[in-house]
Design brief:
The complex is a heterodimer.
Chain A (H helix, E strand, L loop, with lengths): L3 E2 L10 H7 L15 H21 L6 E4 L2 H15 L6 E5 L4 H12 L3 E5 L9 H7 L4 E7 L11 H10 L3 E5 L18 E5 L10 E5 L14 H4 L7 H13 L2 H21 L3 E3 L11 E5 L4 H10 L2 E2 L15 H5 L4 H4 L2 E4 L7 H21 L4
Chain B lengths: L6 H8 L12 E7 L4 E10 L4 E10 L2 H14 L4 H5 L3 H7 L8 H21 L11 H8 L17 E7 L2 E6 L8 H12 L7 E6 L2
Parallel strand pairs in B: 5-6
Antiparallel strand pairs in B: 1-2, 2-3, 4-5
Classes of the chains: A alpha/beta, B alpha+beta.
């Protein structure tokens, strides 16, 4: 039986066109972009061409794009880099309770260095209250960092509103757009963004490559020192095949892809909520990523569901404690006020542009069976 | 297989043995709580002639290792005497399953605990407890330390849900610091009665809520 991959929020396959674009840069066009000779120039041209394509997607200047090894590095660079570079201004950072670990862990590390971090609450849908954000700003506040489209529950934040406030109060505004990039519009000018984390492997590009948009004039210290690559903000010979692939992936995304994912997502949500009793959608019903459907199923546990689905060839993910090493349910689910016993029964299905409606049908049929079977087994009813 | 589970664990997880309830069970126990993400109920029938477990069934809310351990523990216990069944350890269950990942010890030890608690429940109900010390507030409190507070995943004593314990003429009254219309009030009440009523000198258990 064919496998059905419904974990596109974790990663995506590399698109054929992307792979084709990358291939020459492994073998024939292998130059170092810092070299002056023709091999180097060839690589440099590919690098700058890619930079321009990525910048266009954000309405940014190519100069403001810094390539990194991925979303995690970009978030680290944004948080630590800006905090360390702006110590004279203050020691306060604002973020939310539903960030990815690559924002939360740098924040924890900065706290050890003497920074003070405020973690904003979210409502039941995972939305930050802009007023609450405004009230948490102090004279010492350096920056605010917010996850744009949440990787677990799919909620898309109202960044226009947050951006306006941040600009008015003259604090840096960083968004983690790993999930939302190319799926919903991002415009660094109209949305007052100072730093934007994006990456490639969530958009049918290769792993190991990402970027951080850093507005000209925003002060950031590098984390990796060495040669003068990437505006001296990220040393190391550029990963040209990866960068070319990343740019190609960004270039080929169409509104049609987004529409298709949304259609699959809505179909899944509608059937699951209607046909499986005691199932609930998590996250915002409208303001959500086109590829995220996340549910809780009462009285059963996520890892069991995930494993039985895998037996049926369907690959998904869960926020249950048993899927993590921490033995605690996901901090994002708990932040939305979902009780732990429901969080243990959560399941994220994230369709991608290569999925089909038939696959959604097969998934719903199997999920119904599996939920029913596990509920029969459960003493908790 | 990417999961850190043996084939045997997966097999028991996919096709668990002895699943269900025994309506006229001689001994039963529910351990764990939904808030912790795992919970096991064990039911036993005991042949009084030779004190052997003639039938055993389980229910599980939990991950694959929790379900698989519930399954194997019923297989190991069936036909054994109560004394033998009591001494079954997590290591034995794990060995019988071809090994369990260390990270899953927490989820799988619950089934072992469930079997022991079901046996204890049987012994108490049938006057087989050798230790005939009278029930005190301390004894009750210790028992309530095994009832989980579903709001936190910690037990109800540690989380200050137990407001009052009163013992008078074999009647135990427990006041729980929750409104009686709370979503978990019925679960907690049932679990509290379950844990306390089997004590040899307890005739009646009364559970009250604060509002």
């Amino acid at each position: 039986m064919e496998k059905i991959y419904l974990d596109n929020a974790a990663t995506t396959p590399v698109a054929r066109e992307v792979l084709d674009a990358m291939m020459p840069y492994f073998s024939e066009k292998y130059g170092n972009a810092s070299s002056i000779h023709s091999f180097g120039t060839e690589a440099k041209e590919a690098l700058e061409d890619a930079r321009e394509k990525i910048a266009n997607k954000l309405n940014a200047n190519p100069y403001e794009i810094v390539f990194t090894s991925g979303g995690t590095e970009s978030n680290n660079l944004a948080l630590k880099g800006a905090a360390l570079s702006n110590r004279k201004k203050g020691n306060h950072i604002i973020t939310t309770k539903i960030e990815h670990g690559s924002v939360l862990k740098p924040c924890k590390w900065l706290e050890k260095l003497g920074f003070d971090v405020s973690y904003l609450d979210v409502d039941e849908y995972g939305l930050v209250d802009p007023e609450n954000f405004e009230n948490s700003i102090r004279d010492e506040t350096i920056m605010v960092s917010v996850i744009h489209g949440n990787n677990e529950i799919g909620t898309i934040q109202d960044i226009d509103e947050i951006g306006k406030i941040a600009r008015e109060k003259e604090i840096y505004f960083h968004i983690d757009a790993c999930q939302s990039f190319t799926k919903t519009g991002i415009n660094v000018e109209t949305q007052n963004l100072d730093m934007v984390t994006i990456n490639s492997h969530k958009i049918y590009g290769p792993k190991g490559i990402g970027a951080l948009y850093i507005r000209e004039g925003v002060k950031v210290d590098p984390l990796i020192h060495g040669g003068g690559h990437e505006r001296k903000l990220r040393a190391g010979t550029e990963n040209i095949p990866g960068i070319v692939g990343f740019a190609k992936a960004a270039e080929i995304t169409t509104p049609g892809d987004v529409e298709k994912m949304r259609e699959l997502r809505d179909y899944l949500i509608k059937r699951i909520i209607n046909e499986i009793p005691n199932s609930n959608l998590i996250g915002h019903p409208q303001k959500r990523l086109c590829n995220n459907a996340n549910f809780t199923f009462k009285f059963i546990e996520g890892e069991s569901m995930l494993m039985l689905l895998d037996q049926a060839g369907i690959c998904v993910s869960t926020g249950s404690a048993c899927s993590s090493h921490a033995l605690k349910p996901s901090h994002v689910l708990l932040a939305t006020g979902i009780p732990p016993e429901d969080a243990h029964g959560s399941l994220r299905l994230s369709p991608g542009k290569y999925n089909t409606l038939e696959e959604m049908d097969y998934t719903v049929v199997n999920l119904k069976k599996i939920v029913g079977r596990l509920r029969e087994l459960s003493p908790f009813k | 297989m990417k999961f850190p589970y043996s084939e045997k664990v997966l097999e028991h997880f996919r096709n668990p043995r002895n699943v269900g309830k025994i309506d006229d069970a001689d001994g039963k126990a529910t351990v764990g709580s939904p808030a912790c993400g795992d919970m096991v109920a064990v039911y036993i029938k005991v042949d009084p002639k030779d004190s052997r477990i003639s039938d055993v069934k389980f229910e599980s809310y939990g991950c694959a290792s929790n379900i698989a351990t519930g399954s194997i523990i019923t297989e190991l216990a069936k036909g054994r005497t109560l004394e033998e069944a009591k001494s079954i350890t997590w290591t034995q269950a794990s060995d019988a399953l071809g090994g369990l990942p260390k990270i899953k010890a927490h989820c799988s030890v619950l089934a072992v605990d469930g079997l022991r608690s079901a046996i204890q429940n049987y012994e108490e109900k049938h006057g087989l407890v050798k230790d005939m010390t009278p029930t005190t507030v301390d004894v009750v409190r210790r028992r309530l330390g095994k009832v989980m507070n579903p709001l936190t995943g910690l037990d109800m004593v540690r989380t200050n849900l137990v407001k009052e314990i009163e013992i008078k003429d074999g009647e135990v009254k427990i006041v729980v610091d929750l409104p009686d219309n709370h979503q978990f009030a019925p679960n907690i009440k049932e679990e509290v009665i379950d844990k306390i009523e089997s004590l040899w000198d307890v005739k009646k258990v009364v559970v009250e809520f604060t509002e």
